[in-house]
């Protein structure tokens, strides 16, 4: 637990020294620096920092505009951190979520943001109504013309918005996903994540977790290995393949020994389930029993289908 500072400048030509000195004087144990626009919500350094903060930590900035430019983004970040027990403190603004004054200021800011959204919505609806009355069609003409560059720009903007929303909640799911995948399935990971959520937080579905992880992988914020099939699924698939190959081999050589079966599987590139250079006799015995049952099932299936197509004489007489 401790104070972690976040310093940001918009361009590489700007100096971080003043922010660094202020954060150090404020007692920050660690300072994270980033170069990027404050209007860009998808800042990878900030996203990683938010995900790393835990209960009892405090995020410290020199001014609130270092953290976010829009009020909606700022409130989303602060609320997400508060749900996880992380405080936010701004040295140049009356914001310190650890105290009642800072909480009051946040509530006022939230009311202002809601009022601002209502005004924007009202103006937008009025503008659309006026445009329709004048016979003008709204929307982007380049998108209506299906220009490839405009479609790509729209897709990139949507991806950034999705990443910004995902970053705000990353502290709730990122660490468990990184730790548990791909050893566990997405359903099992979702159960673990939901068990640790703060009271009142919306649960994560397996599909949503997988989508968030895929987004972070594309942006380079998460290793690609988390998207690999779950280990149990891979083992089941390998077991089915070994069983099918063993069944095919034993159909051609029903009197083969277990040692011969093991050598044949190794030649086909199928190793024992727990690794190693040779199959254990007990594993081969269990595999051979399953393979023979598998083969019997396949041989009996056409006969059953044939009986359905050509019912016995007594059944045909009964049907007539």
Provide structural commentary.
This protein is 60% helix and 7% strand. The chain is α/β, with parallel strands linked by helices and 320 residues long. It folds into 4 domains: 3-99, Resolvase, N-terminal catalytic domain (Rossmann fold); 108-138; 142-227, no CATH class; 231-314. A 5-stranded mixed sheet has the order 2-1-3-4-5, sandwiched between helices. Strand 1, helix 1 (17-25) and strand 2 form a beta-alpha-beta unit. Helix 8 (186-195) crosses helix 9. It starts with a strand and ends with a helix. Mean pLDDT is 78; it is low at 297-320.
Features:
320 residues; single chain; five-stranded mixed sheet; Rossmann fold; disordered C terminus; alpha/beta
CATH topology of the largest domain: Rossmann fold
Give the CATH class of the largest domain: Alpha Beta
CATH homologous superfamily classification of the largest domain:
Resolvase, N-terminal catalytic domain
Structural class: alpha/beta
Give helix and strand order, one letter per element, not per position: EHEHEHEEHHHHHHHHHH
Tally of individual helices: 13
Q: What is the percentage of strand-forming residues?
A: 5-15%
Ends distance = 84 Å
- Give the overall silhouette: elongated
How helix-rich are the residues, as a percent range?
55-70%
Proper CATH architecture of the largest domain: 3-Layer(aba) Sandwich
Task: Please describe the topology of this protein.
Layout: E1 3-9, H1 17-25, E2 30-35, H2 44-52, E3 58-61, H3 71-83, E4 87-90, E5 95-96, H4 100-133, H5 141-144, H6 148-168, H7 170-180, H8 186-195, H9 206-218, H10 231-252, H11 258-267, H12 281-309, H13 313-319
Parallel strand pairs: 1-2, 1-3, 3-4
Antiparallel strand pairs: 4-5
